[in-house]
Structures are given as structure tokens and as C-alpha cells.
TrEMBL record:
It comes from Venustampulla echinocandica. Keywords: Cytoplasm, Initiation factor, Protein biosynthesis. This is Translation initiation factor eIF2B subunit delta. It is found in: Cytoplasm, Cytosol. GO terms for molecular function: translation initiation factor activity. Component of the translation initiation factor 2B (eIF2B) complex which is a heterodecamer of two sets of five different subunits: alpha, beta, gamma, delta and epsilon. Subunits alpha, beta and delta comprise a regulatory subcomplex and subunits epsilon and gamma comprise a catalytic subcomplex. Within the complex, the hexameric regulatory complex resides at the center, with the two heterodimeric catalytic subcomplexes bound on opposite sides.
Length: 452
């Protein structure tokens, strides 16, 4: 019988306290937290790899390989479409650059900033003109734009003559009256076209206001034929009284200021000055004339040719010879585009220089001007209100400015008018009498009262 101490009893089952031995080569089992941490690290690594591939210019889909290094790790199932055909996503920063097309050089702005508000394109052809514009007005606009008709009074008379043709061909539509329809629907398109060809002169504006007033006075009960005849007759009377007779009266009055032996200096061309000098020559007065001219219009050439044609001794010079020739003059006669309400003279550019040189040389300055050119406007300078002509008119073919548009930072400004201060003017000769510059608003008011 064996001793209980020496006997060994084998356990019937495995001892739960004894851990089974595992082979050394087997990977240790990871907990859920460790698997999650490992998954995040792999995701961060793939993200970093994708960024590096983008920076290297390689599409991420071409280099993507499915990783199965972790045993027992949960893998997310991908969509069949993306797994079967990976998309080639474009990289914004590495988009292939398009072939650089040479850009046309930006055209330099040749507008003079100080006078920018005066720049307006001129109409130089009938292309684009409204269907309501009368053929006579179309022709007149082109003549004004090309300086074929130049001068304040010449443009005024031509405009009224064209409007006379418009009125003669007008027929009042059914259901309308001549008074209400003619001004707004017929005359307005004509005026707009003329203003597009060249800005209206002060005298033209005064005449247009007078014509509109006359149309408004027409009785609606008067037949159209009689009303149109009355308006055409009124236009003829207006031209005869305010322009033709006015020039005759001014010439007769100014001739009395010319004495034998005088040397008359004038600038550019004025129709009333030309009439005055011709009348003085016809009356037998002995005098000489100095015509000062300037580019680009050279209006003085026409005046000098007309005076030479009747036998008057004429000296012609450009404005750069003014300071020398002003010493020989005894009187200075100037024309006017308009007389402002503060007594200043608004005339062809260069007139102010002539008046200042005459004042410096102590020579009397006389302005010959019809009252139709008077205005209630006030001018302190020639910047706010003026007219800008095309700069190419200053260019001489073959001269140094022929290609001025290609020269950087070079601008040409072709102003049409300037303002002469009242203190440089001794007398204004009008059809209403000889007055000082301070009397301009009085004569303008009297002229408006007589028209009303």
C-alpha cells in the first residue's frame, strides 16, 4: 500500500491558473484601443504620402496600393466603382500651364486730364444718323465738322436756313398739333445731330431758343400751311435783323474809328471785321492791315487774300511774330465768338494773347460783336466751357509730330477758344451802339425783351 505522500495525482483537466505556452514567432494580440491607434497612424501616413505625391506632381490614384500588413485589423470596404477604376483627379497647383499668348500692348490714354470733361467724339459721316434727321441738316453737320462752314454767324445763318427747309417739309401727324409735335419730335433730332457734329455756338443756342419760342406762339387753330409760312418768314426776318443789318450797322460805326495812316492789326478771320475794312477802303481811307494768324485753321489766310484782292496793303504773320508787329499797329480790331455777362471775350484761341500784347504796348483794343452773340453765362477761364478739336489737326505731314500717338507720355490738346479779360478791352462795337464791357448784360437783357 503506497504512502499518500509519495503518490502523485494527475489533474483530470487543464489547470486554469496555468497559461498555455505559445510559439515565439506568433504576433501578440492587440487590444481594441491599440488597433484604433494603429489605424489612425496608418491613415495619417497615407495622408502624408498623398500630400507628398501632389507636391511631386504624381496623381495620388496612380500610386495608391492597398495595405494588408496588419493581421486581424478591420478594413473598410470601398465602393466597387472607385476600387475598379480609380479617378485621375487634377491637381490645382500643378495644372499644365497654357501656352502664353502675346498680349497686345495697352493703348496709352492721350486725354489731357484737365480738359477731360470737354472730350466728345465728333460725327464725321452720315453713318449712324437717325432716320428723322433731314437731308439738309445732314449736309450742314458734315460741313460744320470739316470747317467748311466756320465762324459763329456763318453757322447760325446756315442752321436757320436748314431748319427752314425742315419746317417747309413738315406735315403734322393726325391727332397732333404743330405747336406740340414740331419742337419735340422734329427739331430735337436735328439739333442733337448738329451738336454731335460740333458743339453749338452761343449764337446758335440763342437762335434755337428764339425759334422754339416762336413755335410755341403759333395758334393751334391756324392751318398748318399758314403756320409754316409764318415761321419761315420769321426766320428770314430774324436773319436779316440780327445778322445782316447788324453787320452793316457795326461796320458803319467801326469805320469811323479808322483814320488815314492807321495800321489795323487783327487776328484770324471775322466776317464783320472783313466787312468793316472793305467799307473803309471803299470810302477812300488810307490804312494798312496786319493779319496775325495761327495753326491749325489758318483762318487769317482767307481774310488776307480777300483784302489783297480789293487793293488793301496787308502784312501777314503767324502769332509767334505778334510781339514784333504789335509795335507798328495803331489799333487792334478783334472778332468775337461770344461776349460773356461779366464782360469777358470768348473768341478763337490766341485772341487773349493778342489783347494782352496790345495792352502791354498801349494799343486800343476794339471788339466788333453782334448782340446775338451775347450770353448770360459768366466765364472766369477757358477750362470749364470750351471746345476740343481733334489733336491730329495739329500734326503736319512729315513733321516731328507725325507719329505722336506712339510717343509715350506725349499729349496734344487742340483747344478752340480762350477767354480775354475785360480790362484788356476798351470798347465793344455793336448794332445797339458802342459800349464798355460792363454793359454786356444790359444789352443782352434788352435784346431778350425785344424778342419776347
Amino acid at each position: 500500500m503506497a504512502s499518500p505522500s509519495s503518490a502523485t495525482v494527475e489533474p483530470a483537466g487543464p489547470n486554469p491558473s496555468t497559461k498555455p505556452t505559445q510559439p515565439e514567432s506568433a504576433a501578440p494580440r492587440l487590444s481594441g484601443a491599440e488597433l484604433k491607434k494603429q489605424k489612425q497612424a496608418e491613415k495619417a501616413a497615407r495622408r502624408a504620402q498623398t500630400i507628398q505625391e501632389k507636391q511631386a506632381g504624381v496623381p495620388p490614384a496612380a500610386q495608391k496600393v492597398k495595405s494588408d500588413t496588419t493581421t486581424g485589423a478591420k478594413t473598410q470596404q470601398k465602393r466597387p466603382s472607385s476600387a475598379a477604376a480609380p479617378r485621375d483627379l487634377p491637381v490645382r497647383s500643378q495644372r499644365p500651364a497654357a501656352a502664353a499668348t502675346p498680349e497686345a500692348p495697352k493703348k496709352e490714354d492721350k486725354t489731357v486730364e484737365l480738359f477731360r470733361h470737354l472730350y466728345k467724339p465728333r460725327v464725321t459721316s452720315i453713318a449712324g444718323a437717325g432716320k428723322d434727321v433731314h437731308p439738309a441738316v445732314l449736309a450742314l453737320g458734315l460741313q460744320m465738322s470739316s470747317y467748311t462752314i466756320c465762324g459763329s454767324c456763318a453757322r447760325l445763318v446756315a442752321t436757320l436756313q436748314a431748319f427752314k427747309k425742315v419746317i417747309e417739309s413738315y406735315a403734322t401727324p393726325p391727332g397732333n398739333t404743330l405747336t406740340r409735335h414740331l419742337t419735340s419730335h422734329v427739331l430735337s433730332p436735328q439739333i442733337e445731330y448738329l451738336a454731335a457734329c460740333r458743339p453749338l455756338s452761343i449764337s446758335m443756342g440763342n437762335a434755337i431758343r428764339w425759334l422754339k419760342l416762336e413755335i410755341s406762339k403759333v395758334d393751334i387753330d391756324v392751318p398748318d400751311a399758314e403756320a409754316k409760312k409764318g415761321l419761315c418768314d420769321a426766320i428770314d426776318v430774324f436773319i436779316r435783323e440780327r445778322v445782316t443789318f447788324a453787320d452793316q450797322v457795326i461796320a458803319s460805326s467801326a469805320v469811323e474809328k479808322i483814320k488815314d495812316g492807321d495800321v489795323i492789326l487783327t487776328y484770324a478771320k471775322s466776317s464783320v471785321i472783313q466787312r468793316t475794312l472793305m467799307t473803309a477802303h471803299q470810302e477812300g481811307r488810307k490804312f494798312r492791315v496786319i493779319v496775325v494768324d495761327s495753326r491749325p485753321l489758318h483762318e487769317g489766310k482767307h481774310l488776307a487774300a480777300a483784302l489783297v484782292g480789293i487793293g488793301i496793303e496787308v502784312k501777314y504773320c503767324l502769332i509767334n511774330g505778334l510781339s514784333h508787329n504789335i509795335q507798328d499797329a495803331t489799333k487792334v480790331l478783334l472778332g468775337a465768338h461770344a461776349m460773356m455777362s461779366n464782360g469777358r471775350l470768348f473768341s478763337r484761341i490766341g485772341t487773349a494773347l493778342v489783347a494782352m500784347e496790345a495792352n502791354e504796348a498801349d494799343k486800343p483794343v476794339l471788339v466788333l460783336c453782334e448782340t446775338i452773340k451775347f450770353t448770360e453765362r459768366v466765364a472766369l477761364d477757358s477750362i470749364v466751357h470750351n471746345e476740343i478739336a481733334p489733336a491730329d489737326e495739329l500734326v503736319i505731314p512729315g513733321g516731328p509730330l507725325e507719329k505722336w500717338g506712339d510717343v509715350k507720355k506725349l499729349q496734344l490738346c487742340n483747344l478752340m477758344y480762350d477767354v480775354t479779360p475785360a480790362e484788356y478791352i476798351q470798347m465793344i462795337v455793336t448794332e445797339s451802339g458802342n459800349v464798355p464791357p460792363t454793359s454786356v448784360p444790359v444789352l443782352h437783357r434788352l435784346g431778350n425783351e425785344s424778342q419776347g
